[in-house]
Design brief:
Radius of gyration: 23 Å
CATH topology of the largest domain: TIM Barrel
Largest sheet: 8 strands, parallel
Structural class: alpha/beta
Distance between the termini: 10 Å
CATH architecture of the largest domain: Alpha-Beta Barrel
Strand content: 15-25%
Number of strands: 18
Helix content: 25-40%
Number of domains: 2
Number of helices: 12
Length: 465
């Protein structure tokens, strides 16, 4: 394999090996600091990161506010405290080597306030900020204010063009690189647009080449591109190294760092990763953000899929084919459905799915009484973790609402990601993963359940393995 050459990233020559950031403290100061200590770029999550009490124990993120807005303010305070704490840990663990980046989602609640809070409170500890899940126009101005490099996450040249034209050209000196994230292969939230078919993956090389050509037009020929999503080993990407069509390239690993000794995920999660088979990770659209996301098929996602399958359209008046009556709710309110859908609904009710919950799309989904209680409780307990949430109808605006009905086909993402990170629960929670996660089971490096240290993994990656 071609020898890796160092690359100028966030003001320092480092290995072009990047730890991808994962949300809700899945990549933390321990893992990112260890990665940076090996001369690469470590990335901790700035999304609801953990922080510790005087004894070193993780402080549970409990919400005591009576209203969503009060809980929203609590969440912001938690996020800022956690981001500062993880930046400190990462800096100390790095020993001053490599680079430390923070990853945030632009669609997370109060993204701008949290960025200001963390970057101000952790001055000198964070070298760069990666940001995706939305169009982060303001990330450039915020990072430039603190002399920190910014790295937008995009899935197409078209997206970067919009960002550069609208905002980034004013702060070009602080653009440290552009993260191209393959929207068909990356884990977590994916950047599939309405013009792309989720069922028809496109090869990354032409898309990254298009991005580089656009960057050259903007005078960014030497600005690195980080290839993210679907990167397992560098042997399979050797043609990308020192390729004049692509220019300076770094490679971002999101899934493989999950299975290291420094990774903070549970032992149950690590064991599950070692058991995955091809196809166990799939692209879905259940996220309350409205984005596509990739996660492991398990009872949690299966229940969401089945819930949406128990769905029919309805009308409050007899219109067209909606001529059959159906009584729903404790009061037996009459709605109109098609005769075929009434038959389906009666079948679900007979199976115990007796509660019909309305969606924003004039449909009904049928769930059990316990399922209905759980959904409504989670909606009521919303703490506003997103800028806009389909599930609870929270929005970060004056009204505090999207103006639409809460959507029972989705879920509380904050609740499940906190649960899977801080417990041994695996199958009953959302487990984000990249589509190559099944390779843990077949890669001889992980034979007999071997889990490497970050140092061992980075050394392995440099050899192409």
């Amino acid at each position: 394999m071609k020898a890796l050459k160092s690359l100028l990233i966030s003001g320092r020559e480092v290995l072009p090996l990047v730890e991808g950031g994962k949300g809700i403290s899945i990549s933390n100061g321990e893992s990112s600091g260890a990665w940076a200590a090996q001369g690469g770029v470590g990335t901790f999550s700035g999304v609801n990161a953990d922080f510790f009490d005087a004894s070193g124990a993780i402080v549970p993120q409990l919400y005591r506010g009576r209203t969503r807005r009060e809980r929203h303010e609590e969440l912001i305070a938690y996020s800022i405290a956690g981001g500062i704490e993880q930046a400190r840990v990462a800096y100390e663990r790095s020993g001053g080597l490599g680079r430390i980046h923070m990853n945030v989602l632009w669609e997370m609640a109060a993204a701008e306030r949290i960025l200001h809070g963390v970057l101000d409170g952790a001055r000198g500890l964070i070298n760069g900020v990666t940001c995706g899940a939305g169009m982060p126009y303001r990330i450039a101005e915020i990072c430039a204010h603190y002399n920190v490099y910014y790295y937008p996450i995009v899935s197409s040249a078209r997206a970067f063009r919009a960002l550069w034209k609208r905002a980034y050209h004013k702060f070009g000196e602080w653009l440290g690189g552009v993260v191209y994230e393959d929207p068909w292969l990356a884990g977590g939230h994916n950047g599939l647009s309405n013009v792309e078919d989720p069922e028809k993956p496109e090869p990354p090389f032409p898309r990254v080449r298009e991005l580089r050509n656009l960057m050259r037009e903007f005078g960014l020929a030497q600005t690195p591109i980080f290839m993210a999503g679907g990167v397992w080993n560098l042997r399979e990407w050797e043609d990308w190294i020192d390729n004049p069509e692509l220019g300076p390239m770094a490679f971002q690993f999101g899934t493989r760092p999950l299975l290291t000794k420094e990774s903070p995920i549970s032992d149950a999660w690590k064991r599950r990763l070692l058991e995955l088979k091809e196809g166990d990770v799939y692209l879905n659209r259940f996220s309350p953000t409205g984005f596509y996301s990739s996660a492991v098929r398990n009872p949690f996602l299966n229940e969401l899929a089945e819930r949406s399958e128990r769905q029919i359209s309805f009308s409050v008046e007899a219109v067209g084919d909606h001529s059959a009556t159906l009584a729903i709710g404790a009061r037996g309110r009459i709605v109109y459905v098609t005769p075929h859908d009434r038959q389906r609904a009666q079948g679900w009710i007979g199976e115990g799915f007796t509660e019909a919950m309305r969606t924003p799309d004039s449909t009904l989904v049928f769930v059990t009484p316990q399922g209905s209680q759980d959904i409504r409780r989670d909606q009521v307990n919303c703490m506003g973790c997103l800028s806009a949430c389909m599930f609870s109808n929270w929005a970060q605006n004056e009204a505090g609402t999207t103006g639409k009905l809460p959507d029972p086909r989705s879920f509380c993402i904050q609740k499940t990601l906190q649960a899977i990170r801080h417990s041994e629960e695996v199958d009953t929670q959302l487990m984000f993963a990249g589509h190559n996660a099944f390779r843990f089971a077949s890669d001889p490096y992980y034979a007999n359940g071997f889990i490497p240290t970050v140092r061992e993994l980075v050394e392995r990656l440099q050899t192409g393995g």
